[in-house]
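Changelog excerpt

This revision adds worked examples to the README so contributors can see how folded entries look when concatenated. The first example is reproduced verbatim below.
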Amino acid sequence: MNPLSPSEVKRAASADTLSTWQSRLEDHFSRLHKQRHAIFPKQPVFALEHGLTDQELSNLSKLVNQARPSDRHWLAWVVYATEVGYEYAGDEYWQTFEEKTPRWLMWGDRYWLRDCFWKFYKTYNGAKPSGAWARHFSIICWPITHAILPQDLQRQLAEILYQIRHSFRRELFESPELLGNQIAARSWMATPRFQMLTKEPLLLGQIAAALLIAENDPAKSLIAPDTLLRIAKNLNRERGSREWLKDARSAAKARLTGVAPATSRAIETQSSTPREQLQALGIEPRVYLQATQSSSWKVILQIPDLAPLLSRFPSLTEALNGACVVAGSTGRPLSRGRLLHYGPQTVVLRRWPSPTEILLKFEKPPLELEFLLKTECMLRLGPAWLFKISADPRAREVRTQIVRPGNKYILLRTEKASSEPQLPIVPLECEGISAVSIDVPAVLSDKQLHQFIGLGLQPAQQVDVRPAGLPPVDWDGEGAAEWLSSDRPCVCISSDHLVRALTLNLEGSAPSRLDIVPKESGERIFVEFEELPPGDHTLHVLVKSSNDRILTGRLDIAIRDPRPWRAVLTDQNAFTVVSDQPDPSLEQVWEGKAAFTIQGPPSRRANCKFSFSYPDSGKTVVVGKQLPPLALPVDGATWHHYFDTYVRCEKCFQEAYDLANSCELRFSAEELGQYDFTCAREFSPLRWIVRWENRGCVLRLRDDTGNKNALQLSRYEFARPDLSVPLDATTQDQLVRVPEAGGLYCARSSDACHSIVVPPVVIHSLSDLGVKPVLLERPRTAQSIAEIVSLYEIWSHARTSGDPLSSLRRSDVLEALMKAIVERTCGGEWLATELKGSKNHGAFAELKSAISRKSFRAGFGAALWLKHAELAQQSLGRRVAIFSQLAKSHLELPSFASLTSQSKDLYEWTAEFTLRLFTRPETLIQWAPSQLAGGLGYVLECPTLARGGRFLALAIAFTAPTAKARLTNLPNWDWP
């Protein structure tokens, strides 16, 4: 569509009217629809492809702002709403829309606007939103979808393109869908809205390809060229995005103009099985030994970066983001997302894993991940492992089992050979395996040669194959090297005797062969390879000597795609900041559900700057402060105390929290480095917004559900937390005045729920800081306990306002609800004993005896007490399994007639149900929605089982060094 001349623009703006623009837009989208349908029948049309210039958009916006919404001008309104969506940054769409459209509050109708987009979909095959996000935000999903790539997503796309630039290949640009899938595989750290965009890989790939390379034929573009050019210009305005896109374009140009390496498509064809695909990603763990000051050695398991797994198996994102236990370690789970977000990890092995033991154990892994871990994520088969001692001091594994004269080695064995020389024993801080020292002399006698062969070792032969030229990423000093896919590997082959011929045979996805005839003895031969595709390759060197003896050499070559720099946890990092949540939200940081661990030299300090950002009158307001320095290192408990002291107690932050849509934390330690965390507010189609004004509190409900059915609004008082007080149904534009007593406000629609805890507005005395909730009288039945569990979920999931008093009041209510659960399941006598024990940890012996007064069941409590310290270091799944075994051994459990479970053993299901009930009751409804009543009924029938579960929950919680005496929100019980 050709833009109008300046005189035509002026004439069109003064002539009328929106009718002129409506007619012009109808003609434009009709032509665009016909053109696209002829080439791409299934490709939708986007309202952002309107083809208007900035001046034309300005004129159209002025006319829209002066007019009343009308069906005669519906297309103009669609374009206008899409432009607002293009500027959307994850905050309030309707607030921005209303500020830009002053008359909308008087005449506008959100449902009418949604009907306009629906008409665009029907008339021009317009884009139709889909997925969970579209279901929850059924109105604003339309303009945001038609904005294609809103500005807050553009930076994320530029960053991902920069990260995958070394993986660019010609095939990705020939097939936009392949490029889209490649981007989607790297989107696990992006926002949920960007991940929604990855559900359309063809569209995403087309956008990315247009940003990286210019499409010569506009007819082949899935999106109008002028629209793609506009997105590219916006990206170039922001410095970080511009630099990322610049480097990504350079990499793309180099791939398209240079000699293309072996194609990824060829790799996929040859590596068709899951195991072959997994091997090409290079996630096999490695083991090395680390010397200690006490002359012993530690066994270190190096877990590789698991992010490449997502390029082939994107469905594993959620599982890999979960907590993980490393077999042979202390048993304490690694924090969620650590293996995916922080690159390669090192873990000290306290026990040597068995040959059949999977090294990485995730909570409830899907079958696909479980199969992949069984094939590659296990230790290499023994019974012996050879390690060469280097000067750092470390000992690295030599997989070829080749020993060379003049070097020292450590040999690890799970069993001792029957006839072997007496070798010095090496102290090893790892159970289940022994170690001996091997010192290879400069000259080997025949006896020594046979001794090494008897140990399963191979003395070095006279052919040496090692890397040359550009150093590899990793080289074990013997027979294994790793290069990047952007490198050209070069090797040096040498021999100390006369060689008649050499044959080089490369095995892998790009096999090749080379025959060489050396000119003189001892000649060094250098061989450079073309860029090899990612995966494992093996170079075999066959040497024919003058006496026709055949000698062989070997080099294992691993090729990996370059990985973008990210903060990683290794023993070489001087300064590292890690969050225990994969991608912490604003709410998690503020409410203490996310902790930051800072590693660094004990003699240094780290600086922290915290800030809130929120929109106000079209501008972004930033409320920030440089916090006092932190002495390194910092653990999670120290961080929580520091954050409460210097952030949550600050009045400026309390007032800004309820308005903010994101917060930023910047950690720095001068020359040691800097870490930035940007935490956005969680997306919710319903959200209460708090404003403090005139010494009072006012709530406004933001409703983005698009549901025409009336909302259900209710309020709960702190003193009567289980009594719902209905409120008049209000629209999102009306305000709710909060009474002085405060309370919990809940808004429900057919598929969404949001609640907020507002503290008392006025505190008359110190006694008003606390509250003693009184619950309604309920019978001891499964139904009444289910009602309490439901109330617990509402209060637990409710967002707190900026005032810390709201968190204190919510804690008081949750304590009262937990007391009610414990009293009805374990009995009043047990509750009294527990309250006494919570104030004195020494009273746990009395609590253990209260599990059962019958002598033949006394062993149950004793067994739980003996196991609780060990279980505190185990994963939740392991705790469930052992608790189930102990219950079956010591108790006479009734039948499971009313319970069914397809996923696990019924006894384990009930054990997990019991432990969830007494640690995190708010997880029960989502975990067992249809079996809640049945599970509670079973717990009521087995009071000894219930008391045992509660005892174990408390015992494990109080093993934490900083555990406080409390009944609810117990530490060390973070259920998924």
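The second example, added in the same revision:
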Amino acid sequence: MAAQAGIADSGVTRGAARCAAARMDPTSYADGGWQGFEFITTLSGCLASWVATKNADDLATAIKYWNVLLDDYQKVGDGQGGDTVVTHDTGYAMRTFAPFSALAYDWLHDAPGVTESLRAHARARFDAWMSYYSANGYLRDLPGANYQAGYTFAATLIAIAEGGEAGASGDAHWATVRDAIWTADLASALAPGGVLEGGDWAEGWQYGPLSVLEHALAARAMQENGALIPGAEAWASSLPVRFAYGLTPVTQKSFAGGDSDNTSPNRDPDNGALLAGIVGPSSEQAKTWARKLNLDLKLHNENPLFDALATAEAGPNAALPVSAPTNYLAHGVGNWYVRGAWSAETAWTVFQCSRRLVPDHEYNNAGNWVLTRGPDDLVVDPSPYGSVSTLTGNAPAVDSAAMPSGYSPSQGYWGKNTALAWARQSGSGVAAARCDYGDQFRGSDTASDVPHATRDFVLVPGGAGGTVVLIDRVVTGAAERGLHLRIRTPSALALSGDRASATLGSSALTISRLWSTSGAPSVRTMPQASECPSSSHTCDVSRLPSGTEYQMDVAGPSALAINVVSAEPSSAPAEPAQSFAGSGYRGALVKQGPLTAAVITNDAADAAPGSTLSYAVPAVDGAVHVVVDAPVDSQGKSDVTSVLVGKNCQVVVTPHVATKAGFEGRPLVLRMSANCELADDGAVVSTGPASQSGLVASSAGTGVGGAPSADSGALGERDTPNQGPVYANGGTISTGCAMRAPARRSELPVLLLASALGVALFGRRRRAEQARAAQRRSGAPRSTMMV
């Protein structure tokens, strides 16, 4: 860190500037901002400068703001904080006042001017804060909630900071951290199938950056004090990989994935997840990718100390390899990221399928999806902040009588079995997944009255665009209870018959009803509002300043609809998809760039595969067939025969028998020759935390990586060594604080060095941004913590 002193724009230099500004103009830095974020940014800057330069003035300012965290709340010297400060905003301040007080305690323990009286005062606060939150804290035991992440961070740092101190409650706090937080609560979240698996965040990426950073640093601190945290390395290593897959192709924006105040579809990327990958307990390979992404995107954290610590741990950086799969499944939250290629002019999409995992910031939207082509966000989720309505996004909704009054047709909170049934990307790049979401319509104590509800999502990439085929099938049990579909776009759709079209930027968007059991599409302007009416489950407003939506209602008792969405360069609009059908089947024939794809479904009300599925499709050399309802055996395998009959391939699919080779049938993806010779289209299945190629992969059976397309390119320059102050990591931190040792340690202990990386702006609750906006409008000075 000392090497960064005086280096322009380094974390240490920025921290020193913040600390000096607070000292020279104390009035402008007397406001704590939202739940103390301004206080902790000033303190962090002073600590960074003190560690690097031993500047006595910075030490004095650090001690001042440490006392502020211990005693004050909103203003320096207001005396309104203390033991009860962590009760504010349902305890949100636990993640600001508590961990940074612990950091100051550790780093400044033996510094000039720090007395035993001050240390004893801090320990008393630690005990009061821990006692309150461990018993009463909001969502303290729910992994995946940002409140639990903040509590984990604070509790871990407190327990370590006061470890071995006479008169402290460190032993009791350590037991809480070790046994309750990390063993009882987080162990299952980090395990395969847990909510954290894959590195995504259920509340979205306004809340994810701070939360994953807190978990990563707390996990590292625990491990450096001798506690084993199973799954921590695989999870931390997945963070920069998911981050890369979550970026749009050209604009490099981050998928929102939940609550967002932005008036744009996606978010400016925040480097919290990259810092977590750099300084957390991740693999060396993951660290190199995180450094490279941080460099290429020129990201700085709002808190300069975090960047200073990452830079202090320099190491190599490299782009993801050109062989990286073009899909990534974040299994824990059910988000599937798919792209046509690692090139700019490509289709990029996210398909979401999960029950509601946390009570805040996550939407009831199993089956939701978005689509970007090159620089243009064409299908977007414009849900306003705090939406509890399925109708604000692109997920299907179904009329239900099982849920409480006022909920229908939105999906509810109480689903238990909602999940991706399967997801596969084949060798040609075609990606297909099924979301089974019928259980989303159960009540709090009432079983769902929607016995079957699935959405099949198929992306056919190719050329400079992509086509999505949506197959929606619902059994409602009553004619008056139907299926409600919508596709929302910031562009201005124009409807002609069953086809809506629009141009946005350099892209052409077309949405076509290919077939449905009833209903017809309509188009309307999206109503705009920053929020839905309180607790409205049928709200349908958009947070975006403009846009239209494609709507279709399909009557029960059995509803089936096939819609096709195409994203192409506006200079080369897509050929319309063709519908085909026969006895027991229906499908869509799609021409996408050089690739022809046929997507086939049976026409049974509940999509249950029969003993045989026979279909006919025009014979095209190299065509890909995607059969979403293939008959399979107990292992998901199918047998297939195909013959040329006239100009068509006549295909028969049956469940696999042992005397034949068998094909993967969930879904069945075949490559056909001109004379109807067939072969499996292939797939690369990701099954481990770190494969031979170095990519972090989902450990669930549904996680699949397809081969890159021919025009794949590297994400950036590769194998470039770090030079100068790069906001990255790679070395080790000198340890000092041994958790169980009774003696004090050296002046630069490690655990809280690591722990200092814990704050990113977008982890806070939404009111923080409202408060900061009001502060900016009032003319208050802009600090480094403001947007």
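Reviewer comment on example two: The chain has 14 helices and 29 strands. The longest strand covers residues 558-569.
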